[in-house]
């Protein structure tokens, strides 16, 4: 009989020993990366638990393969399967250009209400980095996933919708917009969606004994969207985590900057400043909570600081299910060449194992990855930056990780 992960009333998971986990192998380089990831996940679980635990992977369709087989890019059944099994993992998917089609990745996140995009950026020893002290980088981004400019409410200049929107705006502003040449995008940010994201970020900081949570925003300019994100964020911290957090303001007003034992500092930084802060003072930043667009930018910057997109994992998590995926796309020029770095989906898989509570298996993966990199046995993206490296194919890299697991 199928073993299905169950969601408990308090939001935690009951995970059987052989849970069914659906996967989407993805487009472009996706199949190469997924095949490599799958053998690494299987081997890590076996190394950690012997024959006592095993993931039963189940293929589900999305992207080009889904379109060829079903005529749909994202079949309804795929979303239903993720809802049923609660946890899924995916390779990257192409966004077909034109026809106003939504990105499939954005569609999956929105349709399943996976409101928190969680992206860790932690330095792995031996990875080439453009930073002087990359070992100080250990941050995790909580990016709002369901609203902001990415919601996709926008109208092209000259269309009826854009003209209607402009004429409405022109009734409210002293400086009218040009009706026929102005495109319009809408940036909704709501109290409910902000608060659940920041609640998750602070709860993560509490559960993992992190030092601080920084709200990244541009509220000085966009007062009722990004400014509101900031205000609602502090409300969550101050009203719901009273014992756990201290605001930076209070820290200086009442404690002369000395953090009271066990407290997590809740602070905020304006988005443009945030970029220089993480580059120049990385050890001062830990958990970062951001609206969608800021979160997108800062996570790619942090990924580059710790070695690039080939090692940047991610998870999209909602109240009822979670989908783990790489930060990078399909890298189409490398499709079918068995060349790219599967590290990003492998690390996303390690995040998935942590989500299941299978931390020992996740630790096995991190240790194997560290060993391969210190031994300079890496894929092309790292090999071209590490003098004396041995370049491995995508599948060879996976086998190298498996061989070193203990
Ligand atoms: P991309 O696929 O992320 O590739 C950009 C570059 O990043 C690659 O040319 C490569 O750099 C590097 N890279 C990406 N994946 C890598 C890996 N596994 N190992 C090593 N290097 C890697 O971005 P794109 O070319 O802009 O997008 C291609 C398609 O992916 C588009 O259809 C886009 O919509 C889609 N996309 C999907 C997702 C997702 O599924 N979540 C996310 C982003 C984009 P070098 O050329 O320097 O080697």
How would you sum up this structure, described in words?
The protein contains 14 helices and 17 strands. It has 406 residues and is of the alpha/beta class. It has three domains: 1-127 and 309-406, Isopropylmalate Dehydrogenase; 130-151 and 188-305, 3-Layer(aba) Sandwich (Isopropylmalate Dehydrogenase), CATH 3.40.718; 154-187, no CATH class. Strand 11 (245-247), helix 8 (248-255) and strand 12 form a beta-alpha-beta unit. It is globular and about 65 Å long. The chain binds NADP nicotinamide-adenine-dinucleotide phosphate (NAP). The site of NADP nicotinamide-adenine-dinucleotide phosphate (NAP) has 17 residues, from loops.
Biggest sheet strand order reads: 4-3-5-15-14-6-7-13-10-12-11
Question: What is the name of the CATH architecture of the largest domain?
Answer: 3-Layer(aba) Sandwich
Largest sheet: 11 strands, mixed
The total of helices stands at 14
User: How far do the termini sit from each other?
Assistant: 31 Å
**What is the residue-averaged pLDDT?**
95
Q: How would you describe the shape? A: globular
Secondary structure tally: strands: 17
Query: Bound compounds, please?
Result: NADP nicotinamide-adenine-dinucleotide phosphate
**Structural class by secondary-structure content:** alpha/beta
User: What fraction, in percent, of the residue positions are helical?
Assistant: 40-55%
